[in-house]
Amino acid sequence: MKIYAHRGGAGFFVENSLAAFEFALDLGCDGAELDVHLTKDNQVVVHHNARLNHFYTCNLDGSWLTKADEQPISCLMLDELQSFRIGKPNPHTTYAEKFSKLQAVESQSIPTLAEVVRLAKQKSDSFRLLIEIKTDIFSDNNQAWLALVEAVLALVEQEGFVDRAEYCSFDWRALMEIKARQPSVKTWFTTHPLDWLVDYGNEDLSLPCTKGRLSKLRKAFASGSAPWYGGFQPLSIDDFAEKIRLAGGDAWFGYWLSFSAETISRGHQAGIEVAGWTNNLNKAADYVALNTLSLDAQCVDYPFDDFLKD
């Protein structure tokens, strides 16, 4: 089972920071997952949210951003964006409580994708980057993500990293475009927790989701034509593996608790890999359960679980 550091290994260092990626490399992970956006001047930067995140972002003078200060990445020039610092958790938020092993690092700025690629090339001959294309999945505009896709592919090719770059997204349209342009690259078709899409009558979701987003996801899925599937929406939970294969995907990248031995087997029978993503998985029992699944890869905040035993 291959180990990918989720957002660089968000359990140890602030998510998507160079410190996180360097630690994932030092740990010996097979790769790291990261998220990308375009700045106002069309530079590809690595950041999870479409806006600045006040949970770990401060100004150069050390003053912390508030929720009201979260400007869109797309409205900031690269030099403006990199004037902020992201190496430490905001003490006025619960971010540090989420990640008990988090280490603070001074002078970390929001990195560019080029910086992360160069770090990976400098420290390893095999470390892979799983690049998540962030989009508005509810948009009916099939080309809304095109500029980001083109910029990412161009940068990866320019850096000579094509053979070590992989792509994932909840928006299958973007992945199909990538596959059409670069058939040899590996695409991981990401899926939501299944109980986000279908109401099983259980109030305790496998992963928390706001009521507004939950309602929107379920309504779109129930319509049978949710835009993010690009015309390949599964008719039921049992159809995911085959739909991903038909759409040209190489791997089903689903929330780990959505998988069972049966669903994983279905993926393998369809000729695709099956990988599990997690979010703040920080209990030893959960790691034991994750490791019993016959997944081809896992994507975790805490790469390797030995630290849970101390």
Q: Overall mean pLDDT score?
A: 95
Biggest pleated sheet: 8 strands, parallel, barrel
- The number of distinct helices, counting runs of at least 4 residues, comes to 11
* Terminus-to-terminus distance: 23 Å
Q: How many DSSP E strands?
A: 9
Weakly predicted, low-confidence segments: none
As a percent range, the share of helical residues equals 25-40%
Identify the strand order in the major beta sheet.
Answer: 1-2-4-5-6-7-8-9
SSE class: alpha/beta
Give the count of structural domains.
1
Oligomer: single chain
| CATH topology descriptor | TIM Barrel
CATH class: Alpha Beta
Q: What do we call the CATH homologous superfamily?
A: Phosphatidylinositol (PI) phosphodiesterase
Which architecture per CATH?
Answer: Alpha-Beta Barrel
Shape: globular
Q: What is the N-to-C order of secondary-structure elements (H for helix, E for strand)?
A: EHEEHHHEHEHEHHHEHEHE
Radius of gyration: 19 Å
Strand content: 5-15%
Key features?
single chain; 310 residues; TIM Barrel; eight-stranded parallel β-barrel; 11 helices; globular
Overview of the molecule:
The chain has helices at 18-27, 78-81, 95-98, 113-123, 146-158, 172-181, 194-197, 211-223, 240-246, 261-269, 284-292, and strands at residues 2-5, 31-38, 44-46, 128-133, 165-169, 186-190, 251-255, 273-277, 297-300. By secondary structure, the chain is of the alpha/beta class. The chain has a single domain, classed as Phosphatidylinositol (PI) phosphodiesterase (TIM Barrel, Alpha-Beta Barrel), CATH 3.20.20.190. Strands 1-2-4-5-6-7-8-9 form an eight-stranded parallel barrel, surrounded by six helices. Helix 1 (18-27) runs parallel beside helix 4. The longest helix is centred in the middle third of the chain and has 13 residues, at 146-158. It is globular, with a radius of gyration of 19 Å.
